[in-house]
Amino acid sequence: MSRNENRFLQFLKKKNVEISAKRYGIDALGAMAQGLFASLLIGTIIGTIGEQGGWQIIIDIGGYAKAAAGPAMACAIAYALQSPPLVLFSMIAVGGAANALGGAGGPLSVLVIAIIASECGKIVSKETKIDIIVTPAVTIIIGVLLSMWWAPGIGAAASSLGRAIMWATELQPFWMGIIVSIIVGIALTLPISSAAICAALGLTGLAGGAAVAGCCAQMVGFAVMSFKENRWGGLFAQGIGTSMLQMGNIVRNPRIWIPPIVASAITGPLATCLFKLQMNGAAIASGMGTCGLVGQIGVYTGWVSDVAAGTKAAITSFDWIGLLLICFILPAVLSWLISIPLRKNGWIGENDLKLDL
Fold first, then answer.
1. Top mean-pLDDT range of 6-15, 116-125, 191-200
2. For the chain, what are the domain ranges?
């Protein structure tokens, strides 16, 4: 190693810039999931309560929370990277730009761009006598320029996943149920927006029902199989919040993803072929799973609309049994059962599913 390289590495160490998979793939990603929970997801839950109760002020509160998703994720990432205050506060603008320009890939755009902008801000922090101008300026300019340059492409890549979903909807219900359930479920846990993808594609009908099944398999599956580690807080955080909270753990040990994915491959075709579960409510609800029970409420409002339009005779007990089995009971039971042999043979280790809640 040359003297210049050694000096550069020492400078990065002084600035607490640690280029590692753990810092970016576990710490930053895990924090981003918490930022998403504290904005978009809790806002969705609050807004859903307001909509069901007819309380406009509660709906408005939820809307403001959802609107802060980009800044919340970016600030959470900067916090995980141990950024100084001026960098941390500057991430509000960066996160807003990255999320808005990223479309369906908004969260992934925020993750990538916030990491780079935070580290650049840390490098220049306190290096000049006008730090109060230089640090936020560098952080915001780099972050917003990268958002304008990269975020649309990241959004297009996320949308390509949506095209794969549309291809799957052209298959027979059995295979469509498997493919859509797996793909949308994985998208929900990844740092991209499954709800935005479903909304953009207008994913309703049987395909929407398969999407709901896949999302529920991820959320309820992770919530139940990790109950030993995370108890009730983890059950609710993942079960009605987001399975994205597990992304840091998935990066550390991808095998923990097996039970929810296998569960979604089972519940998807059951939803399309046996229970004929359809999402005839808003398409965005297809990609929400059990988050604030938005997916289930979407299915129910679709039933009500169909009955009012005369295309459905009535809401039957079989409808309710199918909804409960696909969305709650089967994901919980299947993921838990599949995880047992994985724990016994060491594929899932002690605290592999532990969340920092």
1. 116-125
2. 3-155, 171-344
